[in-house]
Amino acid sequence: MTDTRTDALIDALSADVRPVRPMPSPFRRALTTLAAIAPLAAGAVYLLSDPRRLMAIHAGREGMFALEMAAMFATGVLSVIAAFFVSVPGRSRLWLAAPVPFFIGWLLLSGAGCYDDFVRGGSSRGEIGQSMDCLFFIVGVSAVLAPPLLWRLSRAAPIDPVPVALLGGLGLAASAAFLLQFFHPFAVTIIDLAVHVVAVLVVVGIIGLLNRRALAAA
After folding, report:
1. Contacts (Cβ under 8 Å, ≥6 apart) of 216
2. 3-state SS class at 152
3. What is the pLDDT of residue 119?
4. Residue 1 clears pLDDT 50, i.e. is over it
5. Domain extents for the chain?
6. Measured distance CA(202)–CA(197) in Å, rounded
7. 58-97 pLDDT, tens digit each
8. Which residues cross the membrane (predicted)?
9. Closest CA to 150 of 135, 138, 161
10. Which of 87, 161, 163, 165 is the most exposed place for a label (fewest CB within 10 A)?
11. Please, how many CA atoms are within 13 Å of residue 25, restricted to the half-sphere of its CB?
C-alpha cells in the first residue's frame, strides 16, 4: 500500500514537469551578451563622437593610444567572459586572473601617456572639474549596462557570487572607460587617470557589495 501511494505521489508531482533545457556554454553566453550590447555602444560612438578631434588630441602618440585602447577593450571583454565561466560551479578559478595582465597594461599605458603629455607641455591641467565628468560617465554607463549583464549572469545561479560580481563590475567599468575615450575632450592627465581608477573601483565595489541581490537566480 505504501509503495502504491509513493508511486502515485511521484506520478502526481512529475505530471507537469517540463524538460530541463541545458544551459549554453559560458563562452557562448558571454559572446551573445556582448553581441547584444555592442550595437548600442557602436551606434553611440558613430552618432556622437568626433574621430577627427580624437586623433588630433593623440597626434604623435597614436601607437601608444591604440595599445591603451586595446588593453581597455581586452580588460572589459575578458572580465565579462571570465565572469560567465566563474559563475558555473566546477570551472577553473584561473579565469579570475584572465583580465589582470590587460588591466595592468591599461594602467601602465595610461600612466605613460600622462607622462608623455606632461613632458610635451600638453594639457597638464590641475583642475578636477572635467575629470569628475569622466567619473560620472563611467559610473553612469556602467549602471546602464549592468542590468542585462547581471541578469544573464544570474541565470547560472552562481554558488559563490562575489567573484562573479567583481569580474562583472570590472568588465562594466573597463567597457565604460573604453567608450569614454571617444568622447574625451582632452588628453588624459594624472588627475584624470586617478579619477578613472576611482571610477573603476566604485563600480566594482558597488557590484561586489550587491553581489547576492544582483545575482539572485532569475
Report:
1. 154
2. helix
3. 61
4. no
5. 26-214
6. 9
7. 777 788 888 999 999 999 999 999 999 999 988 888 999 9
8. 30-48, 69-88, 94-114, 134-151, 163-183, 190-210
9. 161
10. 163
11. 3
